[in-house]
Design goal:
Layout (H helix, E strand, L loop, with lengths): L1 E7 L4 E7 L5 E5 L6 H10 L3 E6 L11 H8 L2 E5 L9 E3 L4 E4 L2 E7 L8 E5 L2 E5 L2 E2 L2 E2 L9 H11 L8 E4 L9 E2 H7 L8 H9 L9 H8 L7 H5 L3 E2 L1 H7 L5 E5 L3 H7 L6 E2 L5 H5 L4 H7 L4 E5 L4 H12 L5 E4 L2 H7 L7
Parallel strand pairs: 3-4, 4-5, 5-6, 10-13, 15-19, 16-17, 16-18, 18-19
Antiparallel strand pairs: 1-2, 2-3, 7-8, 8-9, 9-10, 11-12, 13-14
Helix pairs in contact: 3-5, 8-13
Bound molecules: fe (ii) ion.
GO biological process, one term: glutathione metabolic process
InterPro entries: Metallo-B-lactamas, Mito_Persulfide_Diox, POD-like_MBL-fold, Rhodanese-like_dom, Rhodanese-like_dom_sf, RibonucZ/Hydroxyglut_hydro
Keywords: Hydrolase, Metal-binding
Length: about 350
């Protein structure tokens, strides 16, 4: 596995780049906007293809690099389903898997620091966001934080992992880089409590000042959705209502870009082909399945995904690949359902 821990000294944030092999797909956890060029350089140097940019939660102390990385690499942005961010390409739930080629991380919902906090688990390590820090825990006094929920997330979920599990947090202010579950259970001063009430008392009396960047970072991080003006301007976007009248026509090929887990959870639009977003490039290239459909059989390609972000990028990519009859459903299957479009399983 390729694993890099990257540090932003301004916000003391750790970001993590993961891949299973040189030349393969990569994902990044908790990227910081100001460090995006550094990440891109490293991704290039390691010959990786960034396919997912993930935030453990909505950050209050730095602006996320999710939007910039998506705009520069066309990767998928990922957060938990509770996030208040306007649009992320994919939303995760408790017990989901976060996957890229050769790697699968278990997704666990660990609220408390915020109500959208998640941790991601590999067999030997866990990325804890701000839920569990090294000899500390993330504050619980804003963004719907809840010390009792955090107690449950830490004691009920994270500390159930094997003692040898490496702990990689989203921040450290003292220069520590990694810990283990066993070490934190024994030596983390916040965890030397016997009940949720005792923990809540401790957390409610920390008297911390707000993060310096909070008034800038929180609104910015809630507006990470892609600017789709270009797709709209060219008339490549159909509202769900408009899509209802063209789905099923003989010259329309409907293409679902989501992953299997999303399809199983949320259903599909009947009659759609499945081309997962990471394989799009190959499929729209010369000789690819979608390329053939669009050029030989003159089908109109109608892409959709979860919230309309992957599909907007797909439309642009199809046009760039010389396929002029490509469109997408604005707002994805989420909007389709609100328009009462039929759903199959
Ligand atoms: Fe945080």
């Amino acid at each position: 596995m390729i694993f890099r821990q990257l540090f932003d000294p301004v916000s003391s944030t750790y970001s993590y780049l993961l891949a299973s092999r040189k030349g393969g797909e990569a994902l990044i956890i908790d990227p910081v906007l100001e460090r995006v060029d550094r990440y891109l350089q490293l991704i290039h140097e390691l010959d990786l293809k960034l396919v997912k940019a993930v935030d453990t939660h909505l950050h209050a102390d730095h602006i996320t690099g999710l939007g910039a990385l998506r705009d520069k690499t066309h990767c998928i942005t990922v957060m938990g389903e509770q996030t208040k961010a306007d649009v992320v390409s994919m939303r995760l739930c408790d017990n989901d898997k976060l996957t890229i080629e050769g790697l699968s991380l278990d997704v666990i919902y660990t609220p408390g620091h915020t109500d959208d906090s998640y941790s991601f688990v590999l067999p030997d390590r866990v990325f804890t966001g701000d839920t569990l820090l090294i000899r500390g825990t993330g504050r619980t006094d804003f963004q719907n934080g809840d010390p009792r929920a955090q107690f449950e997330s830490i004691f009920g979920r994270l500390l159930k992992l094997p003692d040898s599990t490496l702990v990689f947090p989203a921040h450290d202010y003292k220069g520590d880089t990694v810990s283990t579950i066993g070490e934190e259970r024994a030596f983390n001063p916040r965890l030397q409590v016997t009940s949720a009430d005792e923990y809540a008392d401790l957390m409610n009396n920390l008297k911390l000042s707000n993060p310096k960047m909070m008034d800038v970072a929180v609104p910015a991080n809630m507006n990470v959705g892609m600017n789709q003006a270009n797709v709209m301007r060219h008339g490549w976007a159909l509202t769900a209502q408009q899509a209802l009248s063209v789905v099923g026509l003989g010259d329309v090929a409907l293409i679902d870009l989501r992953e299997n887990a999303e399809r199983q959870r949320n259903g599909t639009i009947p009659g759609s082909l499945h081309v997962p977003y990471p394989s799009l490039e190959e499929s729209i290239g010369a000789g690819g399945m979608l390329h053939e459909l669009a050029s030989s059989t003159r089908k109109r390609l109608l892409f959709y995904c979860a919230f309309g972000e992957r599909s907007a990028m797909a439309v642009q990519a199809a046009h760039d690949a010389g396929l002029p009859l490509a469109f997408h459903i604005e707002g994805g299957i989420d909007a389709w359902k609100k328009a009462e479009g039929p759903i199959g399983h």
